[in-house]
Design goal:
By secondary structure, this protein is mainly beta. The protein contains five helices and 26 strands.
């Protein structure tokens, strides 16, 4: 259920893009134009610029030596991550794996498949292959091709049209259990002027525990002060990117909007680009001047819908409105708040009541809002104080309506049996069920002076309560 508080507004359409704070399907890689790099609602493609800072932010930044370490962009043929788009007719080969729990394949692996670090590399030797016909992402770790029999330590296969996460019981190609492909900053994206997804980052010391969306962890210790796999970091909005070149700003804007996802162990603040040699050296050098201390760890738990899925709860879409209109606020059944055409004042699920939201009202200044749950729990969010609780006060019947007092310091509640109740900095003006209409209440509105309210029942009965006179009937 979604409740709506509206003010006059004109909307001219939706704005989708990397700078609008709106999720969009991962930009298809060259050679696979019909394959998104995971759906628009995938966590990799979801903006985090409006999420709250994690309570562990300071500890995780300290563990990653943020005060003394700058970003290091990993790119090019020697270090960047190659992506091989294979022909749909590419022969598939069986892989002999060095451990159990891998996706058996077969894989479109060949002598021409790009290898991280080059064909003679001795490091991680990741290999990423994309079939543009089936939109399948094949990934290998420690991959070695041989006509007589190819080997790899681990292998995983992902459907680029699916949000499904890898099972924690399966072997991983990256330490986090996440796919590598969506976390690579690609040169073609730089050319297009927008990177609309999070980027893969490393840390030396990590927690053995992991958090969504990660499904695995290979940490140094069981220590919550160490960043876990799946941790999300964003470049602070206060970091001035205007002094950088337009190309560098493309990357920095992505870091402010989508951020970094901790996906592997390695040197702190190393984040990944593809193996293109076209990355301008000036861009790479400029990125090295961004300090780790300019980042914040964010709490993205409110985005999680299921631990088995990378689908992320979306904050909404950008709407173009006239400058004179105020827009409207939405509230979801989990207590998530969202405001169109005004500053964002809440989150989609980060704070919630104990029962489904059934009503809401804006504070008088328009800077906050009141919510009420079906159990009577009340809650205030915005620049006004908290005046309620998540369920400790309630009426005898489900609440179906509310209205804020004119000073924004309290609110009226009405239950389906007609019970009325005022809470906040005003006194108690009703009862939990002693006054009611003959039919279920379907709506309410505050009187103009804010000292009472009008009720209406499903049979058309109307009723006023407060310091205003009784003007209706209970169903007659």
């Amino acid at each position: 259920m979604v409740a709506l508080v509206a003010t006059p507004m004109l909307c001219f359409g939706l704005t989708i893009g990397g700078t609008s704070g709106v999720a969009s399907a991962g930009t298809p890689i060259p050679g696979a134009p019909n394959c998104p790099v995971f759906p628009a609602d995938n966590v990799w493609n979801t903006p985090v610029n409006n999420l709250p800072v994690s309570p562990y932010s300071a500890e995780w930044l300290s563990a990653m030596d943020a005060s003394t370490t700058d970003l290091q962009f990993v790119w090019g043929s020697a270090y960047g991550m190659p992506i091989t788009v294979v022909s749909p007719s590419q022969p598939l080969v069986n892989i002999t794996f060095g451990s159990s729990g891998n996706d058996p394949g077969p894989y479109p692996f060949s002598s021409s498949t790009g290898i991280e670090g080059g064909q003679d590399a001795t490091g991680d030797r990741h290999a990423i292959m994309v079939n543009p016909s089936t939109c399948t992402d094949y990934e290998l770790y420690k991959a070695y091709y041989s006509a007589s029999g190819s080997t790899a330590d681990n292998g995983a296969i992902y459907n680029l049209n699916s949000d499904a996460l890898r099972s924690p019981s399966l072997a991983t190609v990256d330490a986090s259990g996440l796919p590598i492909l969506p976390g690579i900053a690609r040169y073609d994206e730089l050319e297009d002027g927008a990177i609309t997804h999070a980027i893969r980052v490393q840390a030396v010391d990590t927690d053995t525990q992991y958090i969504w969306p990660a499904t695995a962890g290979e940490g140094s210790a069981d220590n919550p002060d160490l960043p876990p796999m799946g941790a999300r970091f964003r470049l602070s909005a206060s970091f001035n990117i205007s002094t950088y070149s337009p190309q560098v700003q493309v990357v920095l804007r992505a870091l402010q909007t989508y951020g970094l996802i901790l996906a592997d162990n390695g040197p702190n603040w190393h984040f990944w680009g593809d193996n293109s040699e076209s990355w301008p050296l000036a861009v790479v050098q400029a990125l090295k001047t961004v300090p780790g201390s300019a980042f914040q760890a964010v709490d993205e738990s409110s985005l999680e819908i299921s631990p088995d899925s990378g689908q992320a709860r979306q904050l909404g879409v950008a709407v173009n409105c006239t400058t004179t209109q105020l827009g409207y606020r939405l509230v979801a059944s989990d207590g998530g708040l969202f405001s169109f055409c005004e500053p964002f004042l809440g989150s989609m699920g980060g704070q919630h009541l104990n029962a489904p939201i059934v009503a809401m009202a804006a504070t008088s200044g328009g800077n906050g809002y009141w919510e009420v749950g079906s159990d009577g729990g009340i809650f205030n969010f915005g620049n006004a104080s908290f005046h309620g609780s998540t369920g400790s006060m309630h009426l005898n019947a489900p609440i179906v309506g509310m209205a804020a007092t004119p000073d924004g310091g309290g609110y009226w509640l009405v239950a389906s049996d007609g019970g009325i109740f005022n809470y906040g900095d005003a006194g108690f003006y009703g009862s939990a069920g002693s006054l009611h209409l003959n039919k279920p209440i379907v709506g309410m509105a505050a009187t103009h002076d804010g000292k009472g309210y009008w009720l209406v029942a499903s049979d058309g009965g109307i009723f006023s309560y407060g310091d205003a006179a009784f003007y209706g009937s209970t169903g007659s």
